[in-house]
Each structure stands twice: as structure tokens, then as C-alpha cells.
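User: quick one, fold this
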Amino acid sequence: MTYPSNESSLLDRLQQEEDRALRVIRALGYSASLVALGIGLKSWFSDHYLHAWTLFSFALLMAANCLLFDRRRRPLLFRSVFVVLCATLFMYLIATGGESNTGHLWFFVFPPFVFYISGPRMGLAVMLGMMTAVTLIFQFPEASFVSARYGTDFQIRFFASTIFLTIFSYVLDHSRRRAYDQLVQMAALHERAARTDELTRLPNRRDMKSHLEKEHDRYKRHGSHFSVILMDIDHFKQINDTYGHDAGDYILVKFAEMLQDSCRKMDLAARWGGEEFLILLPDTSLVQALAMAERFRKRVESFKAKFKNQTIVFTTSCGVCSISQTKDLEVLMKQADINLYQAKMKGRNMVIPLVVQKVD
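Assistant:
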């Protein structure tokens, strides 16, 4: 069957986490623009015009990046520009000292959010580049773009505190992402277990209902007909009573294996409950479904199960129905159940509606 279930749910969770992270980064971007605008106005009125224009430019570019993301939805470009703008601003603040030589204090907010935005590996690469640039600023104070002066003690403390903060941010972000990945994997395993029959490893009733609804929606949108085959193992209680419940479980597993082997790639077989099984046949007419049910009935009839040196022979009854007969999913399933009941009442080991055999 072509429907993704657990995979699509996992992708949905990952996409939701990505969307949430982008919303946080977007909020940080707009907040950074407002803060830079506010500090820039203060610098302007303090006659620090170069500093003010630098902050105004940063605020404008950051807001433009957020607005561009709102229109184009290009996450990688948005994240990259965000980091580049912040890195450029912080290098400017360290090189010039900002206003009152306090600009370097803003650098300590950089490591936590660069790891949050870029991830552990890229975050380390960015921080390595930033520390290299800071080293050059400290080592070449006579450069034309450097106006701030920092003593040796300050440089040692700055590097020590930045390295500590970088390591802490890396560990924290790495742990957060690993914990999230583990939770996603556990959720996927839990969902898979909730949708899979433990004994036969076939999809269970809950999962099959979901696929039936999707197929019915596809039928309503595109007119794609589908059919179902509802079947059970004849006299299954007698098998349990005669050979034991372990033998009954063995028969269920073998029946499920034969059922799955008889299905096309587009079909979906599920354990409907107890000894009942259901096959969903997309793009299949009633005649085609009847033919498949009859082939499977004959295969079961000729199968001899070997269990603990005992040979167990069993048969199956099938009720078949097509959406073209009912148009409604609930009625479809009720009719398939009625047909299965009639097959049992008429002697079992048969397909209802009856398959007419051609006589040469």
C-alpha cells in the first residue's frame, strides 16, 4: 500500500519542530531590530553618529531578512543571513568598543543563539571563525578599523569566559537535539506498535480504519473505485480446542503470511480482530476482488500447516464488497460483514458473492 502512516507522522513532527524553531528565530530577529533601533536612537542623541548609523543599518537589514522570510519562506537563507548579520555587528562592537567601550558585552549573547540557529557542528565552526577574528582584533590594535583598546588581563578573561560559554552552549544544544531525536524515535516506535498487530505483524484494525478513510476520500475526490475482502478462518475455535492455543497462534501467523504474500504491492492486509482479516484493494472492481478472494480461498484450502509433528488443515470464508455498490464506507463494511456471515451460514469455505465457475 502506498500510504505513508508512521513515516508521515514522524515527518510531521520534525516539520512542526522546524516551524517552531523558525518562529523563535523570527521573533529574535524582530526583537533584535527593535533593540538595535532603540540603542541607535540613544547613540544618535549622544552624538555618536557612526555607532548610531551602524545600529540603524543592522536593524533595517535584520527586519528586512525577517520580512523576506515571511514572503519567500527560505529557512536556510534566513538562518544564514541572521547569523552573518549578528556576527558582523558583534565584530564591529568588539573592534570599536561600541558606546562607552561596552560593546564587547553583547558578544556573550552570541554563542547560545548561534548554536540554537545553526546546530552543534555549524555553531562550532562559526564560533571558531569569530574567535579567530577577535584574536586578530586583539593582536593588531593599530589596524584602521580597530579603535578599542583591551588590556592583557581583559583579553585572557574574555577568551576564558567565551570558551566556557561556547562549550556550555554546545553541550546544551547537543543534548537538547539528541533528547528530541530520542523522543521522536520513541514516539515513532510507540505509534508503530499502536498500529501493528503484535502476533501477525500486520496492521491492526485502527491502522486499517485510517487507510480505509483515506481511500474513501480518494474515491470521493477522483472516483477511484476500491474493494474490500473480509475473511476469517473457519472453525478457528475448534483448532484451538483440538491442538491448543499455541497451534491457533501458529495458524494465525501462517494465514497472515499467506495473505500478505497474495497481496499486490498496492494492497493492504490487516488483522481486523480475532481470526478475522481484511484486505483493502485500491483501484479494484468487484469482479477483480472476487477473483482474488477465490484464488486465496483455494490456496488456504490446499495448505497443510505443520505444527509439532501434526498436520493442520483449515479453510477460510470471504465476504467481498466494492465501493461502487454502496458509495458509503460504513455501508461498505457492513455489506462485507453480511457477505462473510452468509458464507459461514452456507457451509463455509466459500466467497460471497458467489464466484461463478465457467464450464467448458
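User: anything notable?
Assistant: The domain at 205-352 is CATH 3.30.70.270 (Alpha-Beta Plaits).
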